[in-house]
């Protein structure tokens, strides 16, 4: 949740989200009878390691400052049932890489993008946009309950910060803030499965340092392919030790990550065609190039090179997406990277998988557009 270092024009992604929360507060204040259970908004940060420039410069202060600047006068109002909570994920090593939104236990969003200027277009008025491409997926239905449980797992015990007064008379507002462990609570209505109609399937794909179900889901999904796999991934990495290949030839395919092994096995068994869009530079591209070299060498050793096409994404990108057999789509935060896979290690990550025809059709159009624009490796 990053703000501009220059003058704060309240135009950062975080500021815009804070303004939406302020609009919600005003609706609750104007018509409390429409919200008999009140309104709770929870914002959970990932707590990545960072070098703060001062006591009030880290991300949790950015959030609180944006909420205050948006015109929200209070974090708690028992008469209205208004409850605004902000917290940092409990751990920093590893931290949470999850980007998600859950509304009323009915609708869930899983995404790859951060609250940062990078994802704004280059002509954004702030002058800080970089046109970084990324993707999220929104699903309404029973899977949102699983998403909510995922959020609760991250939220419980996180470091919550509450400010008693955003506009005190005699002290700076930060002096009214205090920390305590976050606790989970919900209105009963938000814990019911919502059935919107339709027959699409959706799957919650969650992993943490101690719970790596999403790792197994991704490997199994890739392994199940029978015809085609279309991937757009900012990272396509082997084990950390393979970074040494910049200086020494120490890495072999034995150091491949599980997703690389699953792709290789699927291509070998089923005549599956793989199209892969990856980032070319800078650091991500270097690690990807080393893993690609290992992967392509093994593909060629098995005589399967005609089944694999790799291109470099044309422009900044941050995708973590997979389409399998034009029938199953995965979108979320989990990179094909050693930091996001493995037993007893790795970041917290979240994705949603679905067979929804409209979502798949939309993704196919996006993929074909970016594939045609992409840079063929070697050109």
Radius of gyration: 22 Å
Helix content: 25-40%
Average predicted local confidence, pLDDT: 93
Give the strand tally.
16
Structural class: alpha+beta
Number of domains: 2
Output the strand order for the largest sheet.
9-15-14-13-10-11-12-16
SSE order:
HEHEEEEEHEEEHEHEHEEEEHE
- The amount of beta strand, in percent, is 15-25%
- Termini separation: 37 Å
Give the overall shape.
globular
Low-confidence sequence ranges: none
Sheet with the most strands, sense and barrel status:
8 strands, mixed
Total helical segments: 7
List its salient traits.
five-stranded mixed β-sheet, 379 residues, 2 domains, 7 helices, 21% strand, alpha+beta, Endonuclease, Chain A
How would the blueprint of this fold be written?
Elements lengths: L12 H18 L8 E7 L13 H11 L6 E2 L4 E7 L11 E4 L3 E5 L24 E5 L2 H13 L3 E5 L13 E5 L20 E6 L5 H11 L4 E6 L24 H13 L2 E6 L4 H19 L6 E5 L7 E5 L3 E5 L16 E6 L2 H17 L1 E2 L3
Parallel strand pairs: 1-3, 10-11, 11-12
Antiparallel strand pairs: 2-3, 3-7, 4-5, 5-6, 7-8, 9-15, 10-13, 12-16, 13-14, 14-15
Helix pairs in contact: 1-2, 4-5
């Amino acid at each position: 949740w990053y703000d501009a270092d220059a003058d704060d024009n309240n135009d950062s992604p975080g500021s815009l989200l804070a303004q939406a929360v302020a609009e919600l507060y005003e609706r609750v204040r104007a018509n409390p009878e429409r919200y008999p259970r009140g309104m709770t908004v929870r914002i959970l940060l990932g707590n990545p390691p960072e070098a703060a420039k001062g006591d009030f410069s880290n991300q949790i202060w950015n959030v609180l400052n944006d909420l205050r600047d948006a015109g929200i006068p209070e974090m708690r109002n028992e008469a209205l049932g208004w409850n605004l909570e902000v917290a940092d994920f409990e751990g920093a090593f590893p931290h949470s890489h999850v980007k998600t939104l859950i509304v009323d236990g009915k609708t869930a969003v899983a995404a790859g993008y951060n609250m940062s200027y990078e994802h704004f277009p280059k002509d954004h008025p702030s002058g800080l946009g970089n046109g970084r491409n990324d993707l999220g997926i929104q699903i309404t239905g029973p899977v949102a309950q699983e998403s909510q449980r995922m959020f609760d797992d991250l939220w419980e015990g996180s470091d919550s910060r509450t400010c008693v007064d955003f506009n005190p008379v005699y002290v700076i507002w930060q002096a009214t803030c205090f920390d305590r462990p976050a606790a989970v609570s919900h209105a009963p209505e938000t814990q019911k499965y919502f059935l919107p109609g339709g027959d699409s399937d959706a799957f919650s794909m969650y992993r943490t340092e101690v719970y790596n179900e999403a790792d197994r889901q991704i490997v199994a999904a890739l392994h199940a392919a029978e015809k085609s796999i279309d991937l757009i991934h900012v990272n396509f990495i082997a084990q950390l030790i393979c970074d040494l290949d910049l200086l020494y030839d120490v890495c072999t395919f034995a150091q491949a990550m599980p997703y690389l092994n699953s792709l290789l096995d699927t291509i070998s068994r089923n005549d599956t065609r793989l199209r892969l869009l990856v980032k070319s530079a800078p650091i991500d591209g270097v690690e990807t190039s080393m893993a690609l070299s290992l992967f392509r060498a093994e593909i060629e050793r098995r005589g399967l090179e005609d089944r694999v096409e790799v291109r470099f994404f044309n422009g900044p990108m941050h995708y973590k997406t997979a389409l399998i057999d034009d029938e199953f789509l995965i979108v979320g935060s989990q990179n094909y990277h050693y930091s996001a896979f493995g037993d007893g290690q790795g970041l917290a990550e979240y994705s949603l998988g679905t067979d929804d025809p409209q979502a798949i059709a939309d993704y196919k159009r996006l993929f074909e557009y970016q594939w045609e624009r992409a840079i063929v490796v070697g050109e």
